[in-house]
Amino acid sequence: MTSAIHSMNTKVWGMLILLSILWGGSFFFVGVAVYDLPPLTIVTLRVGIAAFTLWGIALMLGLRPPKSIKVWGHS
């Protein structure tokens, strides 16, 4: 059996820190927002912002949504 020792380089540490900030920030802002907004509003805003961001990234990468209605209706 071989054991591989993996060391974390600067790029991996940076990605881990970025993930921690994004994930932790999400919980922090939901905790703050829940005092002023109802939960359904918070969920709607989070999903809307995520959808808008993902559509923007997909379009920047040159991905286009399918034009066939059959593709959209297929599940």
From TrEMBL:
- The lineage's top-level taxon is Bacteria
Mind telling me which residue stretches traverse the membrane in this protein? 12-35, 41-63
Recite the UniProt keywords alphabetically. Answer: Membrane, Transmembrane, Transmembrane helix
Indicate whether Transmembrane appears among the record's keywords.
yes
Q: What is this protein called?
A: EamA family transporter
Name its species.
Vibrio algarum
